[in-house]
Amino acid sequence: DSGVTQTPKHLITATGQRVTLRCSPRSGDLSVYWYQQSLDQGLQFLIQYYNGEERAKGNILERFSAQQFPDLHSELNLSSLELGDSALYFCASSVGVGSNQPQHFGDGTRLSIL
Amino acid sequence: AQSVTQLDSQVPVFEEAPVELRCNYSSSVSVYLFWYVQYPNQGLQLLLKYLSGSTLVESINGFEAEFNKSQTSFHLRKPSVHISDTAEYFCAVRVADSSYKLIFGSGTRLLVRP
Q1: Between A and B, how many CB-CB pairs are < 8 A?
Q2: What are the b/e assignments for B65-99, b being 16+ CB within 10 Å?
């Protein structure tokens, strides 16, 4: 158990809809990262937050947004969903923002768009 | 730009045989290197990491990896595999600059046969 909790584990919805994925980092971790794992793109970094503020952005679509709340949990919002958004979305956390700090991953949320 | 190449998409081996999963990276700056393992229907688990110091790093379950700067490689090895080692293995780099993301390889599926 990595200590990172993601909910829900599975999500099935239709095109055009909006969903919210939730992540609770390990106790004491201030930094949260979101990744997308798909068959065609592999594992891709989406966005990172540290102590409530956005710190780095990757290949995140404009239809996607995220935030980190004062209690340090984070939410990833996906809107106007398309079939290609079907993927496994991972959240990871680390203590701080140093490049040498390993990230610990949750079990992911599997999003299926019908 | 940084990148990670895992040359083998799948490596089949017999139980108790040795295995090497190859990983090469490209970066013009210092990097930190990681191996993650993903068991079926589970999230990513940190297997081992190279941050600095000894170029040979070991995990608690018998895997080891060697950082070779001249060859820009971080191959993962195990002298004798078990059926339970069947999983997807991802090599990742994290650059030592202001971006904190992990860049993942495409993964190698280790399939251990009895």
Answers
A1: 60
A2: bebeeeebbbbbebeebeeebbbbbbbbbbbeeeb
